[in-house]
Amino acid sequence: MAKLPTMFSLRHFLVLSLALNVSLLLRLMMHQGAQKAHKERTNSVTEEHHNIHKSRMVISSSSSSSSTSSFANSTSTTGGYNRVINLDHGDPTAYERFWRQTGDKSTITIQGWQSMSYFSDVTNICWFLEAEFGREVVRLHNVVGNAVTEGRHIVVGTGSSQLFLAALYALSPTDSPEPISVVCATPYYSSYPSMTDHLKSGLYKWGGDAESYEKEGPYIELVTSPNNPDGHVRRSKVNRSQGFLVHDLAYYWPQYTPISAPADHDLTLFTVSKSTGHAGMRIGWALVKDQEVAKKMTKFIELNTIGVSKDSQLRAAKVLRAVSDSWELGNSKESESFFKFSHKLMANRWKQLRLVVESSELFSLPKFSPAFCTFFNQVLEPQPAFVWLKCEGNVEDCESFLRGHNILTRSGTHFGVSPKYVRISMLDTDENFNQFLDRLSAIMS
Amino acid sequence: MAKLPTMFSLRHFLVLSLALNVSLLLRLMMHQGAQKAHKERTNSVTEEHHNIHKSRMVISSSSSSSSTSSFANSTSTTGGYNRVINLDHGDPTAYERFWRQTGDKSTITIQGWQSMSYFSDVTNICWFLEAEFGREVVRLHNVVGNAVTEGRHIVVGTGSSQLFLAALYALSPTDSPEPISVVCATPYYSSYPSMTDHLKSGLYKWGGDAESYEKEGPYIELVTSPNNPDGHVRRSKVNRSQGFLVHDLAYYWPQYTPISAPADHDLTLFTVSKSTGHAGMRIGWALVKDQEVAKKMTKFIELNTIGVSKDSQLRAAKVLRAVSDSWELGNSKESESFFKFSHKLMANRWKQLRLVVESSELFSLPKFSPAFCTFFNQVLEPQPAFVWLKCEGNVEDCESFLRGHNILTRSGTHFGVSPKYVRISMLDTDENFNQFLDRLSAIMS
């Protein structure tokens, strides 16, 4: 063993070492202070969200016979049978559980100086489309195999709602004395008539049920497949010349329906809200064959909102990438792929629902035919995002009947059909869905 | 002096102290490692944005006589006098320099599971308004003193463009046989006519110049103050009963104009694009007195885009907070306040512009009267976001004349007045602005 330093040197070393201790401690405290401040900022965003969630837990006293007021009444309260369970909207909160477990893979950080300009790529027809988002859209469609992207212009929108309006604007003849008719087979998405007619446009006008449409001349037919509200696969009905088709494929994803083939239409709409569950992002996209139609849709969005939020596009790109990655990198115990999670979620919910309702004389559910899914490579049942429930027997107004039991749903009348039907969301939180099943059981017993 | 510890104790102390040093060093290295990983994630988003900027540097060959195609031609190329300088739009890239130096204060991180719902606060009239954003709007108006927020409903929009359309929808009578006229004194914002008329709405219709408006009955008058394009302070012109006023105060911020008093109107529009420079965010807000008007504006946005991007609202809240903080926490060498930076920027640019143009017989600039600014507490000159340049002498078409010199501007005809005027952006990059001054000098010499 080496000879120890003298008392004089030891003392010096100790002093030096203590000085170093103090210095390192101070630096560490600085770092932790910075981290804490960062956490507090993050927590204030987190806390804000918790507060918003809490504020959603409000007694909704007025009924929602129109889809308009219903948006303001999207909350439920605690309190047993008196608890109002609001399943009127398709707020996709069921997916939150998946996204909580993805961690950093789906986190985005945006610096203050980024994405300030109006413009994304001015050489593109859709000059406000963020290239990164466009790439992830193409990739996801390739992964899932649910749409042809080759030869398509991508137009991004503030939700597919804005793209629907952009499509009407783009497809309407410019110099017609009469507005072009916009039709859709019943039951149709409850917002289509009001979205079409609220501005009393001279360019287009709601023409009602496509099945009974007989007017001469050009028309626009909306084809939603799988359909909202009833979940069935659909084709166009009118099938005459001079018709423009808008295919709304919001639910053409593997968790809702077997993927039969890549959709290959002239104008196809998708939305992040129903694919990944990020409804608050307000991002949708259109795959458009015709360049002139793509230009006019872009023009509409320019006049409406001078483009689409870049922050949301960048975040959507991150989220879509996480979905594609989760599938392509395979499933493991640590990280289940998004589509496996969501398919399992919907399968469980529909199974539980059918168990509860199957022997009931009060209610009936739609029947679906299984089909081969090219994505999951097996024969599977459709499991739509909404249940199109029918009240049997003497119950003529199903929405009122269920409202009397504190379950808020959307009446079939909003979808152009009988009030014996209601549309009920299958995408809400686990808590709300389980309470809904319990309530149905209670009604039936 | 106290007796020193024995050699045995000193050695022990030294060993303990050294052990503590090692432990503290290791902890510090861990923290720095975590920070570096965070920076790398940020840099990958940064790199994406550099690629987008590169894609903007494309030769724009077609001219832009209409504001429509002009959006697709917002780029400039390198190359001396042949370089096309596009100052047709108000893309606020001048502010990027400020935001680069704010660092973390304006950075936002959003986790994958946050803000997924459609809903923000369903107890609020504007159910998609993020509370945090609403609070920062109120705070900023208090800091600047440019608007009364007491007794106002805040409606958030995808830019003030969407809020303008929402205002038209909300103020139009529902059961009138004729569309209500929408008027504005010339020179008016070039997009107003097309935004008003592109859907040929039965509810409202462009009625032209407010100064010469004489039609009986209800009307909507747009008052933009400071005005776009000429920068002058404005009041309403029609001043009859049955008139609804929409005040567009996009430029009522201290860097553009003296703040005379808090704006106190029935319906006032603001936009993040022109206050902080974050045009790509697509966020605007309206301060609305009348509850029914606020409800109808909310309804419009619901039908148009089912709300407004939450990601953008949260980011806007962060940015507005950084602006308010930068003012309230005082100016220092390390961190200049946003308004000090931006006021100085505009002051320098206008000073340089006047120096170049003042002795010219070819061009003339508007004259502005200095006024007391309650924000900066001194008498100051207006320094608008656009220069309303007039070509004097024989030049009848100023836009063509300047286009011949590879400067793209927006012709006065788009603003309802003579082609001897053009609107030129004062908000573009330093590089473009300096090149513009050089080009003007070259033209005049």
Automatic annotation (TrEMBL), chains A, B:
- CDD domains cross-referenced by the UniProt entry: AAT_like
PANTHER family from the UniProt entry: BIFUNCTIONAL ASPARTATE AMINOTRANSFERASE AND GLUTAMATE/ASPARTATE-PREPHENATE AMINOTRANSFERASE-RELATED, TRYPTOPHAN AMINOTRANSFERASE-RELATED PROTEIN 2
SUPFAM superfamilies, sorted: PLP-dependent transferases
Give GO MF terms, alphabetically. carbon-sulfur lyase activity; transaminase activity
Region: Disordered, residue numbers:
37-77
Organism's domain of life? Eukaryota
Query: Which Gene3D superfamilies did the record assign?
Result: Aspartate Aminotransferase, domain 1 (3.90.1150.10), EGF-like, alliinase (2.10.25.30), Type I PLP-dependent aspartate aminotransferase-like (Major domain) (3.40.640.10)
Required co-factor(s) are: pyridoxal 5'-phosphate
- Oligomeric and partner information: Homodimer.
Give the compositionally biased regions (Low complexity). 60-77
In which family does this protein belong, per the annotation?
Answer: Belongs to the alliinase family.
Keyword set, alphabetical order: Aminotransferase, Pyridoxal phosphate, Signal, Transferase
Q: Which gene encodes it?
A: LOC100807013
UniProt KW Transferase keyword = yes
Q: Which residues form the signal peptide?
A: 1-19
Basic and acidic residues bias: start-end ranges: 40-50
Q: Which residues form the Alliinase C-terminal domain?
A: 85-443
Q: This chain belongs to which protein, by name?
A: Alliinase C-terminal domain-containing protein
